[in-house]
Amino acid sequence: MRCLALTETMRGEPAIELRAEALRWCENFWTENSPQGRAVLTIAPGSGAREKNWPEEFFIAVANWWRERTGGITVLLLGPVEAARGGIDRLREHCLAVGDLRLSQAAALISRSAVYLGNDSGVSHLAAAVGVPTIALFGPSDPRQWAPRGGRVTVISRHIHCSPCSTSIMKCCPHRACLSELSPEEVIDVMSQLPELASLTRWGAGITV
């Protein structure tokens, strides 16, 4: 909530308990796909509506920055909606893509990340609930109503004259400036300020997954 300068205290922070079988699955996943000590950024590029999604090329820019900044990897979380809609083929080339996960497996995977980045989506709420540093990108929807709750949540939203807007307007918006004008540089700048990134450099210590 820091980027929105919200003063109202959010009560009742969500929290979930990870299932033992999901944690075992996650351990096997990291053993197979991620060398120990590499910093992991998890990205979920989808949402319930295409109009709420940050542009693919912007996610690519962040993934490339993460690799250069930390020497780490980006995990791309994909659900059936993203697979059906498409539009993420280029992003796949820059990430370790994983899909067809149960909700418990997705929660366990996110919990082992240094940072999570996503749109206004259920997965972003899941990331907040498992307690990882969560950056949620909001465009047409109102973050005061829909943003994930938690002490490690940062919401980034462009304050333009027409946002937030209704679903009917969102569907026919000709410019999507609330997201198209939210540059990768702005998101990277916010991410760089996270305390968790202070020690994550290409030549420094990463995190153990």
Return the domain count: 1
The whole-angstrom Rg is 16 Å
Shape: globular
Strand content: 5-15%
Task: Characterize the biggest β-sheet.
Answer: 6 strands, parallel
**Mean pLDDT, all residues:** 84
CATH architecture: 3-Layer(aba) Sandwich
Distance from N terminus to C terminus (CA atoms, Å) equals 27 Å
Secondary structure class reads alpha/beta
Spans where pLDDT lies below 50 across 5 or more residues: 1-11, 203-209
Strand order within the widest beta sheet: 3-2-1-4-5-6
Q: Looking at this structure, what is the CATH superfamily?
A: Glycogen Phosphorylase B
CATH class: Alpha Beta
Number of helices: 10
Give a description of the structure:
This protein starts with 19 loop residues before the first helix and ends in a 17-residue tail after the last helix. The protein has a single domain, classed as Glycogen Phosphorylase B (Rossmann fold). Helix 5 (103-111) packs across helix 6 (122-130). The chain is an alpha/beta fold and 209 residues long. It has helices at residues 20-33, 56-70, 80-85, 89-92, 103-111, 122-130, 143-146, 167-171, 177-180, 184-192, and strands at 40-44, 73-78, 96-99, 115-119, 134-138, 153-157. 38% of the residues lie in helices and 14% in strands. The model is unreliable at 1-11 and 203-209 (pLDDT under 50). It is globular, with a radius of gyration of 16 Å. It is built from 10 helices and 6 strands, in the order αβαβααβαβαβαβααα. The chain has a 6-stranded parallel sheet with strand order 3-2-1-4-5-6, sandwiched between helices. Helix 7 (143-146) links the parallel strand 5 (134-138) and strand 6 (153-157).
